[in-house]
């Protein structure tokens, strides 16, 4: 990666991120999708713009960005390319976990590296056959010689092909533990996962750990603690980012459809003048604004330290991802046969939006969780 950005650079916000995305991401998103990877030059540019972990404190090289603004940043990046936003998501999860639960020594070793993007993080939870079910983890962390020995396989690791630091969740002697594992540790093997339906440039990988020896400083948080607040908090940040990115997909659908229907004619009339087209656009705009407000509420509750943010994020992610999938399908329909090719972005948006309904908690799980909250409120 490049040298860290200048200390006097302005903190990123929605407007600066929008300009960055329009210049460096939107024109190349289809190319990234076809290539199935993101160029190092773009990752360096993201570092230069201060977008990797701006919520980290200035003392670590961050910008003390609040969570509402972070959501807006991830929305804008998601508008440009969901694969790029996916990298921000997992990097955010690792960086947040380090800030919240890292020891002074761990913060000194990794904090500035993560804030400036010189080190990129990836989140290793899902496993072959069991997904992200923490009760069924087969990856093990065994205490040995004051440290740990890590063995197992993780799958669907976003940015696993490129990340420098893995946050790995494994079954410990008593319960789940979280370990910081540098990529270059002996026994770590990375196998690319290619030809996915959506977010094709998110550089997925399967990560194998074969008797990986780690020191005591690898443990993040107290032993036996990861299955509680650490894991809950990191997954909550992941859902928040996916929710915001889904809002970005809806915005891109609105933009694409408004532009296309303002040029395309049928029987001498612009598509935009047809009542059914206008109805589709009005539904997109309405859901866009509703999803954006739900994300803003979740972010505000995070900034206030209100535990209600967990459920607010569940609701935001469920609504936004469902709406993104629905409107991306409509966007393809509006474009007709043109929507099935690569000249217009809607085919990519359609594929990426489907992924949003699955990652960081499938929509089926979200519906069960949200309903459970409703019954708890009713019982009171």
Automatic annotation (TrEMBL):
InterPro entries recorded: Acyl-CoA_Oxase/DH_mid-dom, Acyl-CoA_Oxase/DH_mid-dom_sf, AcylCo_DH-like_C, AcylCo_DH/oxidase_C, AcylCoA_DH/ox_N, AcylCoA_DH/ox_N_sf, AcylCoA_DH/oxidase_NM_dom_sf
Keyword terms, alphabetized: FAD, Flavoprotein, Oxidoreductase
Membrane spanning residue stretches: none
Domain Acyl-CoA dehydrogenase/oxidase C-terminal: start-end pairs: 232-371
Residues in Acyl-CoA oxidase/dehydrogenase middle domain copies: 122-212
Cofactor(s) listed in the protein's UniProt record: FAD
Domain of life: Bacteria
Signal peptide: none
UniProt GO MF annotations: acyl-CoA dehydrogenase activity; flavin adenine dinucleotide binding
Sequence ranges assigned to domain Acyl-CoA dehydrogenase/oxidase N-terminal in this UniProt record: 16-117
Database matches in Pfam families: Acyl-CoA_dh_1 (PF00441), Acyl-CoA_dh_M (PF02770), Acyl-CoA_dh_N (PF02771)
Family to which this protein belongs: Belongs to the acyl-CoA dehydrogenase family.
Protein name per UniProt: Acyl-CoA dehydrogenase
Source species: Streptomyces uncialis
